[in-house]
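Two quick folds needed for the group meeting slides. Do the first one here.
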Amino acid sequence: MSESLLALGIAELGLNLNDTNIANLELFLQEMGRWNQVHNLTAIEGEKDSVRLHLIDSIAVLPILRQFLKDQNPKIADLGSGGGLPAIPIAIVEPEWRLTLIEAVRKKTAFLQHVRGKLKLKNIEILSERVEDVAVQQPGQFDAVISRAFTNLARFLDLSLPFLKPDGLVFAMKGKRADEEMQAVCMNDWRLLADEPLHIPNLSVERRLLVLSPMRKSPLTS
C-alpha cells in the first residue's frame, strides 16, 4: 500500500528515483513507524499521512535545492532534525551530498543512528547536541542549512547564520504562517532569493520553501 502511495507522490513531483531510492525510503518509513510506537518520535500516525507528510514533504524540496546548490558535494546542516526530516530522505536520494543532522533529544538521535546503520548511509553525520553548541564548534563550515518545523523563521535564521560559508544559503520549510514569520525578519540582514510553493500530491496543507542568503557575517566566523 505505501509503495503505491509513495510512487504516486514521486511521479507527481517529477522526481526520477531508482528502485533502491524507493526501497530505502520505504524502509525509513517502516523504521520510523516501528520506533514511533515506543518512542513517540512524531505526532503524525498512519501510513497514508506518513507517506504524504514525511517522505513526500521532505523530497518535494529537492528540485529547488538542486537549482541553488551548484556544488556536486554540498555540505548541509539540518537543524533540529527530529526523526530525520528532511535530511534522511534527502540523503537517500542524493548520496553525494553530505548532511549533518543536529538533534539534542537522545531518543531521536538514537533512532537516527539506527537508521544510518540500517540503510548504510555513509553521507550523514549525527550530532546529539544543541544547535547553539555545534555552531560554536563548526562555524562557517556549511554550504546550506535546512529545517522543517524546528522553530520560527527569525530564530531559525539567527541560529543558521554561524554555520554558513560566506556564500551559504538557508532553506526554510514553512507553512501558511510564512508571511507572518517573514515580518519578524530584519531584511537588512537577509535577502530573500526565492519563495516557492511546494505541491504535496493529494494534500491540501500549504507548504512553502523560502531560500535566503545573509547580508552580514556571523560574529563567530568574522
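Then this one, please, same format:
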Amino acid sequence: MLHCNISYSDLCEKNMTVAVITHSHCHLHDNGSPHHPECAERLDAINNRMIMSGVDWISRHYDSHCAEREHLLRVHDAEYVERVYATAPTEGHTMLDGDTGMNPHSLDAALHAAGAVVMAVDLVMAGSHKHTFCAIRPPGHHAGRNRAAGFCIFNNVAVGAAHAIEVYGIERVAIIDFDVHHGDGTEEIFSGNDKVMFFSSFQHPFYPFSGADTDVPNIRNLPLPAGTGGAAWREAVEASWLPALREFKPELVMISAGFDSHLEDDMGGFNLVERDYIWITKELCQIAKEFAAGRVVSCLEGGYELSPLGRAVTAHIKELAEFH
C-alpha cells in the first residue's frame, strides 16, 4: 500500500512508477463494424478504471512515437508492409482480412501501437522505468510476417523484441503470451530464433487453430481446454514455463497481455480472474528481477468485455507498479 506522504518525485526516484504508453490515434482506428469487439471503448475502460482505482497516480503516461519502416521490416516482409500502406484508405473502410479492417486513421494507429512497444523498450533499457505497459490498439500477436489476422495489423511485441535485439544487443528475449488465443503470428516470426523464447497459453481447439503441435526448441506452448480455470492454468505455467524461463535467463521480459482469457469475457472459454493476472505478473517480474535487471515490457492484446478488461488491466498495471 502506498502512503499519501510519498510524493510523485519520490516514486520516480525509487523507480516505483510504471510507464503507461498510448496515443490518441489508437482511439481513432475502426475495424468497420459498429459492433466490432475490438473497439476504442476498450482503451476508455482501462483508463477509467485506472483513474477510479487510484492506479493512475502510480503511473507515468507517455505518448508513443510512430514506428518507422525499419522497425517493421525487422519482423515483416517488405511486400506486406507496402501492402498495408497501399491499402490504408483516405475515406471509408477497407479490409486486410476477414476480421481486420482499416479506416483513414488505422495506419497511424498501427504505427503508434508498434511505436509504443519500441518506446517501452527504450525506456527500460535506459533505466527510466523497470516496468512498462502499452495501452494500444490494434493488437498484434496474430500478425505474421506477411499477413494481417485476428484484428492485428503489425506484430507490436515482435517489433519491440527485434528492436531490443538490433539496437541494444540483447541476446535473450522472453515473450509470454497469456491471451486466450494462440499467438500464432509471434510464433511464426520467431520460430527457430535462439535469441527469443516464446511462451503462449491458449484455449485449444480454438481460433486460430494452431500451436498445439508445435515442436520447436524456442517455443513453449500450453494448449488447454475450454473451461480452464486459474488453478489448472497456474499449475501448467508453474510446471512448464517457470523452469524454462529460469533456464533461458532472459535479459528482457516481454508480455503479450491478452485479457480475453477472463471468466467474464465471452470471446473465449477460459475462466481466469484478476488474481490470476496478478499472480503471473508477479512471477514474471520476479524472473525479470533475477535475470533482466527488472526489465518488463507488457503490451495489450485481447480483452473485449469492457468491465473485466478494465479491472484486469488495472490489476496487472498495479502489480507492475508495486513490484520491486
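Slide caption for protein two: Strands lie at 18-22, 59-63, 94-95, 101-102, 131-134, 173-177, 196-203, 219-224, 252-257, 296-300.
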